[in-house]
Amino acid sequence: MSGQTFGRTGRERHQAERGPGPGLGGGAGRTLAELSRQAVLLLLGLLGLFPLYFTLVNSLKNPTQYAANLLNVPLELHPENFAVAWGQINGPMLHSVIITGASVILTLVLATLSAYAFALMDFPGRHVLFALIFALLLIPDFLTLIPLYLQIKALPLPSNDLDLILPTVAAGQAFCILVLRTAFEALPRDVLEAARIDGASALQTLTRIVVPMSAPVLVSVAIIRLIPVWNDYLLPSLVLDEAHRTLPVALVAFQGGGASSSAAPNYGALMASYLLSAVPLLLLFSFLMRYYIQGLSSGAVKG
Hints:
By secondary structure, this protein is an all-alpha fold. The chain has helices at about 1-20, 25-60, 65-70, 80-120, 125-135, 145-155, 160-185, 190-195, 200-215, 215-230, 235-240, 245-255, 265-295. The chain starts with a helix and ends in a 6-residue tail after the last helix.
């Protein structure tokens, strides 16, 4: 009897030393902390979605509804704003797709060849040349804007699109070579050595082994490079004529009656043009997001 009493007393003493169990105060505290974290994340998510909500609801308003209330959902919708917006941006959007696609593809091709040479080939001056390429990242873009503009205008290029594509490809080389060289150096050397023993040439090793194994990193680099090219306004506004203008230039010019017009801007159509201009990037990200995340998590691309 005394042993049982002593055993119960020991268990009670042990429970008192441990403090409240998971179903008591400790569990309630953890639950409250978890709810607080979830509430903060929900608030941040709503704040991130607010610009999309603002653009969407105002793209369906006429000027009177827009002036009356910026935040409410209109009772009478005006989807014709999207037709007006599409008539203004369909041509510039096509040119943006062409220029951005060509620039990113050419940048990746040239950077992949260069990064392969720097990472997996041995030649005199390799480290010095790579250091010079890396130094290009330290030069601000605005310092080269005027010389670049004068050089573009002096070149007899056959197409106005090339006035923008070639400088964009050159500007993206340093960053892409740096990232891809790091990724290629991390590839298992035994696989590359086995390909060399089997008689594969350097080009075959690159196209059949290095590129497939580095596909997530290549997609990540392409997306990182694509966004600033797609959104670039300054250089396209300087070198492209009216017939070849890109989407950012068209969006800036599209202010209802136009930037040079005294008419009141049609903000509903303007908001609709913003939504339409985001569709290509949304579609691209929906297909490539898995590879983009894999490329980031591989450690080759640091945020």
